[in-house]
């Protein structure tokens, strides 16, 4: 690891990888991830990725996205995402992403809740894993990218509203300042601050906590999506998602008497509320989801879900499974523009970390992977254009190896960046402070909306 880079990318899910793949190959890039490289929520995405099938579908795709988001979406962002979708899909296919095709070799499209037509590409029920693993493999081939796992961002180096790098804790626990022309936050959502979530527990909104500390604008921080169907369990830990595509293919929700009680293809927040109402009515801790109504071979269509349910004692080909809503996705985040730029110079945010307004108050199913890819590419291209304008030149300092700061350097860090070593000595206390700052922001936004009777997601 060096002390100076052209770019530091925090996170190696689809957003981080796609950004890295669109930056100039002469650039010196550091990518860090808090856990293993495969432990991003991008790997967990099951259902698929939306795409504009043809120009005739534009109006419907736009309306479906806006309707699901309660019309709180940013129109420009929605338009950019939809119109960029086919180009993104073509790039993924060029990088060997294997989407399901029919016997004639044509792409297959499926449907999920709140979609008016089939426009979702998929790879069995592990689409996120298929896309992310292929992108990560491409990134690992790049000689200009250094990828470090188990390396945590503790803070950013910011002065006068300019981001100049990141403070990281390496795998050995050393605190190291790393300087960069630009920083991209692509470090996921906030599921780790919830007791019940489909997210990896280490995704605790680190960028949000730093943004709050460094006075970087946030947006819609209380817009948290609850997924209607996760496999009910009394065990602690991450909840296993039962993809929306299951209901898109024809699965139905049942009450304790085995009776269907709602339209399963409504937006996620609506279905979640209906499930909670039914649980209260039935005095149960879950409802049931039957896949026997699906007119396909569910073992072949949903092999991952079939195997996981079997491990938990349920055969989806023979019996319904218990499901319950759980925290799933964060529509809010660090406020960014259409090029993923934050309100701090030289700092970008993309993927679930950011909020460009695409999702409004409730994300439309299978828009997450697409949105992450589209706006990660835009961030990389904006950075590359600025580098070209400035003149990307070799800097001898980049050849230096980063080492733990000496005592006099800590004095400089404190003076210029308000960073003090003692603030990060006890990481449990530090993590708890970060978590509480996010909850405070959510509560304040909830209180504001309650007083002003605004709409928010359920």
Tell me about this structure.
By secondary structure, the protein is an alpha/beta fold. The protein has 12 helices and 16 strands. Strands 1, 2, 5, 6, 7, 8 and 15 form a 7-stranded mixed β-sheet that branches. A 4-stranded antiparallel β-sheet has the order 10-13-12-11, with helices on one face. A 3-stranded mixed β-sheet has the order 9-14-16, with helices on one face. Helix 1 (14-21) runs parallel beside helix 10 (368-390), helix 3 (75-94) crosses helix 10 (368-390) and helix 5 crosses helix 12. The longest helix has 26 residues, at 427-452. It starts with a strand and ends in a 6-residue tail after the last helix.
Short description:
By secondary structure, the protein is α/β, with parallel strands linked by helices.
- Strand tally: 16
Please, how many helices?
12
Q: Specify the helix fraction band.
A: 25-40%
> Helix/strand-derived class?
alpha/beta
From the spread of the alpha carbons, the general shape counts as globular
State the order of secondary-structure elements, H for helix, E for strand.
EHEEHHEHEEEEHEEHEHEHHEEEEHHH
Quaternary structure type: single chain
Q: Tell me the span between the first and last alpha carbons.
A: 44 Å
């Amino acid at each position: 690891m060096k002390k100076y880079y052209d770019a530091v990318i925090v996170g190696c899910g689809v957003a981080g990888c796609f950004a890295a793949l669109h930056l100039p190959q002469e650039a010196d890039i550091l990518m860090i991830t808090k856990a293993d490289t495969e432990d991003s929520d991008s790997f967990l995405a099951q259902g698929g990725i939306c795409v504009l099938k043809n120009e005739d579908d534009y109006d419907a795709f736009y309306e479906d996205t806006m309707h699901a988001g309660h019309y709180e979406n940013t129109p420009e962002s929605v338009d950019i995402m939809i119109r960029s979708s086919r180009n993104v899909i073509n790039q993924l296919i060029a990088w060997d992403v294997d989407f399901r095709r029919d016997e004639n070799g044509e792409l297959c499209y499926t449907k999920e809740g709140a979609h008016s037509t089939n426009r979702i590409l998929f790879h069995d029920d592990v689409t996120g894993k298929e896309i992310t693993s292929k992108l990560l493999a491409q990134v690992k081939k790049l000689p200009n990218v250094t990828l470090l796992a188990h390396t945590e961002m503790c803070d950013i180096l910011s002065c006068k509203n300019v981001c100049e790098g990141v403070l990281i804790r390496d795998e050995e626990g050393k605190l190291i300042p790393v300087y960069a022309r630009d920083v991209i936050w692509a470090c996921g959502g906030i599921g780790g601050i919830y007791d019940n979530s489909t997210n990896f527990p280490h995704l605790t909104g680190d960028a949000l906590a730093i943004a709050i500390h460094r006075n970087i604008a946030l947006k819609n921080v209380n817009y948290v999506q609850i997924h209607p169907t996760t496999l009910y369990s009394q065990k602690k830990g991450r909840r296993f998602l039962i993809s929306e595509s299951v209901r898109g293919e024809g699965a139905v929700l049942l009450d304790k008497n085995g009776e269907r009680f709602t339209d399963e293809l409504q937006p996620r927040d609506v279905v979640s509320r209906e499930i909670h109402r039914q649980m209260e009515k039935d005095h149960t801790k879950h409802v049931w989801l039957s896949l026997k109504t699906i007119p396909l071979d569910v073992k072949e269509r949903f092999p991952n879900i079939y195997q996981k349910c079997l491990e938990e004692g349920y055969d989806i080909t023979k019996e319904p499974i218990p499901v319950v809503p759980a925290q799933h996705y964060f529509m809010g985040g660090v406020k960014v523009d259409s090029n993923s730029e934050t309100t701090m110079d030289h700092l970008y945010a993309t993927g679930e970390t950011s909020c460009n307004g695409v999702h409004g108050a409730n994300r439309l199913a299978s828009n997450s992977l697409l949105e992450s890819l589209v706006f990660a590419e835009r961030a990389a291209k904006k950075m590359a254009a600025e580098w070209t304008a400035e003149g990307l030149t070799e800097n001898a300092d980049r050849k230096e190896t980063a080492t733990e700061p000496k005592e006099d350097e800590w004095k400089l860090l404190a003076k210029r960046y308000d960073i003090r070593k003692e603030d990060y000595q006890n990481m449990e206390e530090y993590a708890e402070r970060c978590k509480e700052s996010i909850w405070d922001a959510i509560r304040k936004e909830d209180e504001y909306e309650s007083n002003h009777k605004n709409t928010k997601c359920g």
